Predict the structure.
Amino acid sequence: MKINKSIGVFDSGLGGLRIFKSLTDSLPDYNYIYLGDNARLPYGSRSFDVIYKFTVEAVDFLFKNGCEIVILACNTASAESLRKIQQEYLPKNYPEKRVLGVIVPTVEYVANDLKSKKVGVIGTQNTINSKVFIKEFHKINSEIEVFQKASPLLVPLIESGEGSTEIENTVLKNYLRTLTSQEIDTLILGCTHYGFWKEKIKRIVGNNVRVVCEEDVVPRKLKDYLQRHPEIEKNINKEGERLFYLTDFSYNFKYLAEKFFQEKINFKKSTL
Ligand code: DGL
């Protein structure tokens, strides 16, 4: 099943649904297809070659099902694969289509706010190892100090959907302490999953730290991108259609996704 002339949103699992929802809430007229590769989650600890292969398969699937543009709503995929996809894969295979990430728009948003001098980033092991946030900040302003903390236990804890246990809070506090001890003024949630714990994270870091979530940034950046690229925008239909694909029908995923959307979702199975 496909929706022609649509916007594709891809994540390794649940977190991208938050970006998907915020896109469809902010720009509701466009057609959208979501793909969550939950059968192969987590991406955060895999090698570059495997992440690239999985991401290319996902992008190819979304293009074949009618997407004109794909948002990699996954920091790990954006950090590890976006550049190679844009520079090598697209020109060879889909020169007229586009793939965009979530990291550069978020960095631009934070760096252009002159109040940000000491920025903390939490993310998966791969995102942090890639140092992509540091590199992108320093392209814009080399005086911004960036402190990073890999937080590999958060994705499985969030996907378990437990809620608020003592173990979760202890793990989270330990990760965040490394950054708050540097007196950061801004904290970027550099993994789409972490949005599910946004309020909990805000309570721990306190009012003096601004918490930035990509789902609040990406829709306005996409709107701006489409305004600057009418040749792409005109290829996306405005019929408000939605389609959800998963690579595995796990009960927990469906439960958490429907709880988040507060409605029943007709997920379709994709075999990548
Ligand atoms: N959603 C991914 C991200 O934003 C993390 C989940 C994973 O490890 O697959 O980095």
